[in-house]
Amino acid sequence: MYIDAGHVVRALTIAGSDSGGGAGVQADLKTMHQFQVYGTSVITAVTAQNTLGVQGIAELDPAFVRQELQSVMQDIGADAIKTGMLSSAEIIHEVAAFLAEVRPPYLVVDPVMVAKGGASLLKRHAIAAMRDDLLPLAAIVTPNIPEAEELCGYTLDSFTSCKRAAVDIAAMGPQIVVIKGGHMMQQDAENGITQGMAKWAIDVVFDKESGFTALATPRIATVKSHGTGCTFSSAITSMLARGASPLQAIATAKAFVHEALVQAATWDIGAGHGPTDHSAKITLAQADMKQGSYLLSNGKWIPWEDSII
Q1: What is the pLDDT of residue 202?
Q2: What DSSP line would sit under 106-145, residue for residue?
Q3: Containing structural domain, residue 24
């Protein structure tokens, strides 16, 4: 366990349960444990789910979600908090109101909207509540491209549009926006990209203070990618709880997800979108990383010549 001056570092996940164990609270707690952070959880919804899809969703009462929050925070507390599946506007309102009261040191918002298999995990009317109530409280928000499109209201089909979306989402409140590039398969000639996007998974990071950073990892040909967004955001949350800078936390989390995909690529768990390996090796990113473009090579982030920034 990571202990700082006698303090056991801890993090809280507010999210839904995945009965298949690959995403949601289960993925969050596995990731936090791997990062040696004591993890606590507040369940917002329970899903009947496996690698083939989501067969059912049962939301918890928003008042009970608040009771869970009170139980955890009044006794145990949290050095960093993340949100995942919140399911409804009513739950978002309750969670946001509580977080506005306690003001955690760091809040990471993973705006979960759709499961890997395509099932909706956030009601349509709740998107506005997330945008208006929750994002203003966030230090970091981590949308994938479809989620960013929902938040912004326009299509993201190039790095130019991803950069625009990052700026627009930051204007909704968060200090840092990470547009995850796992869904981006196109080439953006306008920005001088010489490598096809089938080769790299590139995240666009926008910090209101320091500007843009690009983080690229080799793209892994695998269907064992269920829960990557949950794993990524909980790894960021764990690193922030441990005292890392936001960029070091984001880069470490991305490298961890890459390794988790590599290690699980041949797993035989389920017949659909299988889970990643939450016991994958953690390689800490350089603490002194600055704004720029980086490529993960042999476990280390190096300056990338094919810069998109």
Answers
A1: 93
A2: -EEE----B-TTS-B-B-TTHHHHIIIIIGGG-SEE--BH
A3: 3-303
